[in-house]
């Protein structure tokens, strides 16, 4: 995403477990939306999404729609998580959102790494 000053930033959604990257994306309790500019987190907003509870309520389609809405509302370009099922990965691919899966460790550091990989085209 290009900012008004011409700088390029990347919006990254990170599945959280405390300050670490969390497990399953579709069952996340909390998601951080980070804006990363030139290798620095310039904005970090945490959301209690409670997809862990919503996952088994209704159909898979309604659950995916809930997640799509969140991603679009927050202009997410990259998702960082410990795990993601194939249907969710396909959905993100269709949306043009990069998924970085099997990530562990510090959530803020993972957001910076993901933004760097996305801007490098890795």
Give a brief rundown of this model.
The protein has 122 residues and is of the alpha/beta class. The chain has helices at 51-54, 60-73, 86-95, 107-120; strands at 9-17, 20-21, 30-37, 40-48, 78-80, 98-100. The radius of gyration is 14 Å and the shape is globular.
What this model shows, in words?
- With 122 residues, the protein is α/β, with parallel strands linked by helices.
- The protein has a single domain (9-120), classed as Nucleotidyltransferase, domain 5, CATH 3.30.420.130.
- The protein has 4 helices and 6 strands, in the order ββββααβαβα.
- It has helices at residues 51-54, 60-73, 86-95, 107-120; strands at residues 9-17, 20-21, 30-37, 40-48, 78-80, 98-100.
- Strands 1, 2, 3, 4, 5 and 6 form a 6-stranded mixed β-sheet that branches.
- The two termini are 17 Å apart.
- The model has no long low-confidence stretch (mean pLDDT 87).
What are its keywords?
28% strand; Nucleotidyltransferase, domain 5; alpha/beta; 122 residues; 4 helices; 34% helix
- Given the C-alpha coordinates, what overall shape results? globular
Calculate Rg over CA atoms.
Answer: 14 Å
Could you say how many structural domains there are in total? 1
Number of helices: 4
The CATH architecture term is 2-Layer Sandwich
Uncertain ranges: none
Class from helix and strand fractions: alpha/beta
The helicity comes to 25-40%
Largest sheet: 6 strands, mixed
Task: Give a topology summary.
Layout: E1 9-17, E2 20-21, E3 30-37, E4 40-48, H1 51-54, H2 60-73, E5 78-80, H3 86-95, E6 98-100, H4 107-120
Parallel strand pairs: 1-5, 5-6
Antiparallel strand pairs: 1-2, 1-3, 3-4
């Amino acid at each position: 995403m290009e900012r008004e000053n011409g700088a390029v930033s990347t919006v990254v959604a990170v599945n959280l477990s405390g300050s670490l990257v969390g497990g399953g994306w579709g069952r996340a309790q909390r998601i951080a939306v980070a804006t990363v500019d030139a290798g620095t987190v310039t904005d970090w907003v945490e959301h209690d999404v409670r997809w862990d509870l919503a996952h088994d309520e209704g159909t898979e389609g309604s659950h995916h729609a809930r997640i799509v809405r969140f991603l679009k509302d927050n202009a997410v370009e990259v998702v960082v998580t410990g795990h993601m099922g194939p249907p969710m990965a396909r959905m993100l691919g269709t949306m043009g959102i990069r998924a970085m899966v099997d990530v562990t460790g510090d959530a803020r550091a993972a957001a910076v790494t993901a933004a760097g990989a996305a801007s490098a085209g890795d």
